Structures are given as structure tokens and as C-alpha cells.
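Forwarding these from the shared drive since the link keeps breaking.
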Amino acid sequence: KGITLLKQNGFLGFITSNKWMRAGYGKTTRNYFLENTQPQLLVDLGSGIFDEATVDSNLLLLKKTAFTHAFNAIDISKEKHVRNLYLFSEQALQITPETNENWAIASEIEQSIKAKIEAKGVPLKDWDIQIYRGILTGYNEAFIISGQKKDELIAQDPKSAEIIKPILRGRDIKRYKAEFADLWLIYVPWHFPLHNDSSIVGVSQIAEELFAKKYPAIYKHLLIHKDALSSRNKAETGIRYEWYALQRWAANYYQEFEKVKIAWNRIASIKQFSLIEKDILIQDSMHFITGNNLVYLSAILNSNLLKWLLNLIVGVSVGGNAGNSDNIKMLPIPPLSETDQEPFIELVNQILAKKENGEDTTALEAAIDQLVYQLYGLTDEEIKIVEKNT
């Protein structure tokens, strides 16, 4: 609205959240600036600007005229003093809404590293993989139980074992290998045990009666939490699905949990990618990948270089969206033949074996980092920049 009200060649300045600069959902905003204004100055302020708000902020000064050239940008989010940097390299003079993926503030050498990575890699979305989100219970206290409680329920009724499955939380995700905390999910789809009956619309009393009869121990356990479970999303619970069912149970892709996968905590400030075994479920705080070349992909995704790139193009803030699927699926990864993947796969397998035994894997992870630097063709100077900032 402010830009609309401006006279031609008028100026407008705003202080806002900085998420639009890098997030996938901010692309339409960035496109609007490129199509309707010439940005003059961008200052990424980071956090701590407002006493009573944790939001990361930025200042943006715009001119109402056609976009023709690169502009100054300053990043003071990571350092106490101002860094005079440039938002775009010269190639960015040709930037268009179609190529406008993010506004990453970077020095000339950082832009060079980013360009090398993009030139060598193919965006993850174009690999033979699929990306999904974990399961939302709506009330963890009822559905996520300890190993001891699992054993009690199975002792009361052996059939309980059929719908109790191991689950990982976001905090369990570590670099390469997750740390299982002996937590288990009572996996109850909508309309269970009639969940495969597509004719059921809304709450089914018949399904509840059958559930109570077939799984009495679990039904009794959930019944203790009925009030809280019934108080979940009022537009859904007791209308679209039964009070005893999970809020989101991956109806269209629950079979994907039966496969090996790579999972990461989408809301954590530091992104780590774990290779997860078959038949392990994950919570909704995570995304996960299934498909081919997962061991090789885990090596690249966990490398210092990809960590550096993700920090550059997305930024890092606790509770931010650096790990949402829109950002991860754009990471450029070089496609290699099975033979060329072998050095990475061998190192990852050694890391997993050592982590299983609680042994240190620092040297092995550093070896993967060196392979990745070579893969993308970084110079010694560029490697120093990456390692200084990871």
C-alpha cells in the first residue's frame, strides 16, 4: 500500500521481520519488490532489536522506480559491528522473479562459493526422493508413552503391540544417527480400526465400539485422557474424527514410515540429518525423506559446506523455518554414480557403526567434509571461509 501511494521516484522505508528475505513463502514479496521498486539499502538486524519481541528484524529502503541494479546490503545480525556487504553479484543484474530464490547477504567470496555449489549440484527436489512431515498427535501425553508403559499395555493385552510403534522426537535427531529415547507412539488413525473404509465420513460410533473391543488395554489408557483429547482442534475432534484418534496420522503416506529415511528437525536452529531405520515413526516437528541414494545424501546434507550454505541462504534462528521442506529441497547436491558414491557411503557406515558403540566420529566426519569440498571444487581460501563460519 505504501508503494502504491508513493509518487514515482519516491522513497519508502520499513522495519519488519526478516523472514521474507529467505523463506519460500517470501518469494512473492521479493518478486513484488523486483517488479515495482529499486531497493536502495537492506540492513539485516537479527534479533535483540525489541525488548519485548524475539523476532529477527530488518530495515529496507525502497525507491518507486524500475529495478535495474544491485544494491547495498548490511548484515549486523551475526556481528556487533557493521559489515558492508553486497546483496547480489554482478550476475544478479539479470535477476528475475523466476530466478529469485532468496536474498542472501554475502561478500564477494561468499557469493563465489554459493555459485560453485549451485553450479555443481542438482536441487534435492529433482532427485528421486519424496519429502514428508511427521505425525501430529494433538496431545502427546496420551499417545506417546515410555517403554515401561508399552510393556504394561502389552502385558494387559498382547494385541496392544500391533499399534504401538517406536517414535523419534525432534530432540532425538543428531548428525547421522538418531538417539532413541525408548518412547513409543500409540498409532490410532481416524476411524480406527475401520480406517480403511472410505465410506466413513465424520465420527464413527461403530469404529469406537470395535476399537474398545479389539484393543481394550489401549482404549482404557486413552479413556483416562478423553477430556483433553476431546478438547483438541474443535473444528475436527468429535466432528471429522474420533476423540481417541491421532490429529494427523499421515493418511496418504503412512507406508513411508516403513522405509529407511532421512529425518531432520525443521524448527531447530542447527540442522542435523539422521538416517532412520525402517518402521520408526517421527513427530510432526520433523520432515523426512524417502527414496534412493539416502546414505550418500546424508553425507552431503550433514557436511560443513551444506550447513554453511543453509545458514547463508536461509539464516538461523531458534524456532525459525530454516529447516522447512521448501528450503531443504532447494539445496544443490551433485549427482554421482554408485561407484563415485562409495567413498561417502563407506565413511557414513563407519560413522553409524561407531555411533552405535558410543565412539567418537569427529575424524570420519571431517573426512567427509574434505570429500565434499573437493566435490564442489572449493579452493583453500574458500574452505577457510566456510570453516570459519560453521
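-- next protein --
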Amino acid sequence: MPTIETQVDLSGASRIFQEFCAVIEDKHWRKRTKQLIEHSKRNEFLRAHYAYEYAIAFQMEACNRLVEKYGTFPPGAIEAQGLMPAVAFMRQVLSLLDGLQPEKQRAFIGRIRGAFRNPDDMRALLMEFRVATHFTLRGNRVRWPELEATDAKLQDATFDLFVEDLGDDGVEVECKSASHDKGRSIHRATAFAFYERLTKELGDFARRLKTGLAVVVTVPDAIPGAPNEQADLAKRVHRQLIVGQSEAFDDGVQIGITEFEVSRLRDIELQTDSEDARAIVDELTATRNRSVLVIGRRNVGALLLVLQSSKDDELLSAVFDTAKKAARSQLSGTRPGLLLLGFEGLEAEQLASLAQQDGDSTQAPTAARIAVSQFLSGEGREHVVGVGFLSRSRLRPIGSGHFDSGGRTYYFENDTSSLWLPAFKGLFRS
């Protein structure tokens, strides 16, 4: 039975990398990262986006460069270059491959190789690793239907994980990961490509600013695809900034401009899509968790610009459409099941804020709680004993040489299910 490793000794990183390359072959991430670098060489925003979306692949490429230069990983290089997630990923992959039957091993190797080419596949894989690590650290026995020879308990299983010793007959676990773009009309890659055009159009204006300006550009649907239409939109933004007033146009485009004290950005890097910048834009513009362009001069003047669609984001709706299908077709329905939903665009602090609001009886329930309640009350979901929201995971130091994967989970218990047991209470730290 494959068991996932939950601890990694960074002193063995060179050996782990060599073993991983021998099995997976580095051409599978080196080719992809080369393509992405070539595609984004004229667009720094798109380049940063790719580095985020394909983080493990680019970290693996950094490992290649270290080994090519030094023959091994110099002391401290893994931590200094932020390569711990890649080392942890490699170690967990190797731990699961160990002892697999040849047919299952070949299939899993194929899945790993494919994940380097597709960020959605990598997100799904990392989420399964994260959930399996959680239950393993709790002391539970986690089984992997994908990796094991079929037995009675896993016959025809289509769910991701099986926690064998939880409850009377085990619990089925299905993981679903939602990207930043899930349910959104404007995808991040599209926004970042347009930011490059805006930077060229507005760069001189931003450098002359001696105040802070927050700009919200709302399009009726999505950013226009034709270069001439994008150029026209960028020029419209420029004209309104020169005029210094907001405007709603006949074609549905709206440009809102708000002045703010530039001192608000004193400790913030002037870069695209930083978390701190997004937090300020959320406050100043009544938008939430949008990608943001920040250009200007530190402590002198800066332009914060956010793009959005007038179509409401349908993140929760899209995620729960997926959850409904999973509850019906991937969980068996005969045993207790957990649905765990990972949100790449949701920070741990944001998820904690949702849980805090729901825990305050004087405040209205969050959209998350309402969506879960509607989901659990739907027909054919009696077997779902819990739904968990997982925030984005970030490694954080917890002591000398030790790191925690971070992230938060907001766990909703369905104690009205006929399959509910006390053992299912408090499975996650919220």
C-alpha cells in the first residue's frame, strides 16, 4: 500500500533530485519552461504569471541550473531560492512510486509528466498530496485507488482517496481544485497581456504622478481580443486619466477613477498583482481579489489599475456545479464521503475571515456558507458528511530548517446525514 512521505530532509535534496530525474526525466519540465519563457519574453507580466502558474516546473528548472553549475545543491541554496515546494513534491512522488506494481507505476509517472505541462493537473495533484498528508499526520491510513491493485473496498473506485480507518467503514474523499480563473470572464493570462499594453500607454503618465490614483476598468463581457480594440481601450483609459474623471461609455465600458494618499503604498512593491496591492485596491474600489497593475514611483505617485467584467463572477456557482457532479458520479454513495474544494485564489487570511464572520451570529452568513447549505440540502447528497474549503497553500518557516505547508481549511459538517458519525467531527483545523 503506497504511503505518502510527510517530512523532507533538505540535506538530502541532491539525492532526491537525482532519483526524481532518473524516473520522471527532466525533459518534461525543461521543454515546457523553455516554451513559456520564449512566449513571454516581451511581456514581464505574462512572464510573472507563468512563473506562478507553473511554479513547480520553474523550481525544477532552477534545480537543474544549480546542479549544472555546482554539481550539487550548495548549502542553503534550496531555502535561499525558495525551492522547498519542489523538493517536497519530488520526495512525495518518490514515496508513492516506491513499491507500486509496474503497470500502476507507469500510469502514475505519466500523470506526473503531464502535470508539468498543465497547471490544472498540477494543482489537482498537489491538492491530493496536501489532503493525504493531512490525514497521514492525523495518524489515519490513507489509500490511493489510482495506485493500488483493486480489492473489495476499492472496487471500481472513482474517488481520489480512501481514509480506511475513519468511522466504521472508512471515508471516501474527492478533491477538486479551482484556479484563479474558475468562473471568471477575464482570465489572468488575458489581463496580464493587456497590462503590457497599458504599461506602454500609461507609463509616462504614471511616472509624472504626485498622488495615488486607483482606476477600475469595467468591460461588458471580456477584454476585446483584436489588437486595435485593445489599443482603443488603453487610449480611452489614458484620456480619462488626463481629464481626471470617471466615465461610462455607450458600449458598456466604464472607467472609474479614485484618488488616494500615495503614502498608503509606502511598504508595497510596485509590481503587478501583489497581495498587498490587491488588499488596498479591494478597499479603495469595492472590488474583490482582482488582478491589479501597479506602476509609478515609490513614495511619490502611483497608478493602481484593476480590470473586471460587468458579468458577475460565478466562482462558487462553477465550483459547486463541479461538486454536484462529483457527489453523484465520483463518490460511491454507499459510504460516507468528503468533498474538499481547493481555491487557488483564496488566501488563508481570507478564508479565516469567512469562518469568523459565519461564527458571529450578529452578521449575515457568507456566500460560502449559503452555497454549502444549498448543496448539502440537495437531492442525492445524503452520503456527503462534510465539505471543506481549502485556501491557497504557502510554505512558511516554523523553526530552524523546518517549514509548514500553511493554508487554512473551513470545514462544514453535515451531521444530519444518516451516515454521520462523531468521528467525522473536527477533521480539519479551521
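Residues 188-208 form the longest helix (21 residues). DSSP finds 14 helices and 13 strands in the chain.

- D.
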